[in-house]
Amino acid sequence: MSTTTTTAQIRVLIAKPGLDGHDRGAKVVARALRDGGCEVIYTGIRQTPEMIAEAALQEDVDVVGLSILSGAHLELFPRVVEELKKRGVDDVLLFCGGIIPEEDTAALSKLGFKAIFRPGTNTQDIVKFVYDNVKK
Amino acid sequence: MDELVQRFLSGDRRALARIISRVENGTPEGREYVRALFPHSGKTHIIGVTGGAGSGKSTLTGALAGEYRKRGKTVGIVAVDPSSPFTKGAILGDRIRMQDLTLDPGVYMRSMAGRGALGGLAPSIANVVAVMDAFGFDYVLVETIGAGQDEVEIAATAMTTILVNNPGTGDDIQALKAGIIEIADILVVNKADHPAADILVSQLRALLALSPAGSRRPQILKTTATKGEGLEELADAIAEHYQYLDETGQLAKHQEEDARHQVLAITRQIVLERIRAATPDEELEALVKRVAARELDPHSAAEDLAASVLI
Which domain holds residue A37? Predict the structure, then answer.
């Protein structure tokens, strides 16, 4: 039976691990996904890997997007992935964005990040990526 | 499904999160979970936090949860933010104000989108709250969408409703109006470090003095949620309100009213769905066109539509 209240919006967590406090990019991506019809949980700046993983668990999100500008991605992203696994959150779609050098692409892809969005990305590409890759 | 329910009943938070998603989406599977878990609910003190956008509801909810943790109690939080009426998307930002609680194993916090429901809540809120209740939290705090003057739905779900007011946002006539202020069991003047806080307190007090004799007057409390001030008093006032409900038999009455409200709301939805399912789109469109052309009034059209099923 179809119901007027049956809806399943894609739920996305946008998080900023580490100490850099510039969240303009994260907010732009959150806004683009909102306009794309997603329910976006934004947790604010200066999140530890544990906090991000715990928020992903509690919110039962389909997607986790990490934004980082500090250069500490190879330090912090593996810890986020590890904390997610520790909690059994092993089926979320991972993507990241920010200042991330080309040469780190392979390492992040090995960690499970399905896409890296760098400055200049068209936000519509991010929305399309999410819709194309979420298992619903 | 049974495995997830077992994990839920043994206190697995991931199982709780998963079940809430299914219940929130209103799927037949979600309804099965509510059926399985509903008998375990009914033990939790459900507290509603409502008030205008930017009044400090999230910060106050987080600080209140912190106060309960100091008292050794566990807390579930559901915070609702609005969905876009155009794209159905939403930004759910209430976690930002509750960072300190994220890693506390005694707190579970869930953001929900309003998904078009009126009244400051979400269509499946009662079911989600029942599931959190069944999980066994001592308290479930329900934070509404920023409410204006008329979003009173929360009072049906919550046993104790807290209305968060801000100093400097309107004169005493605002408080005199009917609507949301009437559902408040406790009035909080948040941002009490604002110079106009005491003026608002006296306006609210003067207003409550006009209440009919014999009716319970809500307590008025001052908080500064960002500094954690006034939270002890708020938690005490909530406990006192619960005791009052219990002793006067109103708690049982509230449960019945909530049950009636839910049964009728769901019945209304089922009947509408049946009618929609039984009506070919062309038939509905034909009626719509006739109403738009003023050949038929909306009430007669609706009667026609309903008559096809309800004979």
Answer: 11-127
